[in-house]
Known about the structure:
By secondary structure, the chain is α+β, with helices and mostly antiparallel strands. It is 32% helix and 28% strand. It has three helices and four strands.
Amino acid sequence: DILPSLIENEEDGTMLFDVIYFDTFAEPxxxxxxxFEDFVIGLLDDGGRWGYFNGLGADRQVCYDVYGKVVxxxxxxxxxxxxxxxxxxxxxxxxxxxxxxxRPYWRLxxxxxxxxxxxx
Length: 120
């Protein structure tokens, strides 16, 4: 609800950000895509970077990989490039983190942090 008002105030140049992080946990992919197509473009400074919680399909490696490619294509179409920074994740099942949980949402050994910026 607040994002449109931030963009409206951007005309005087006071609402441009160097860095933006969007927490997409429990959000559908369509919400992320709307965010970067409609809002990031109006809020990010020319040299700025932005990222999001990259948990799409994190219960299976093949799904995680496919979502990564889909996001890359959509980001490119919207005028962004993405660099993936790998972060090792400890074995959460071995550590008992998922004890009693029917369907863990994270099963991968590596988290890929997306760092996005305008193409150019």
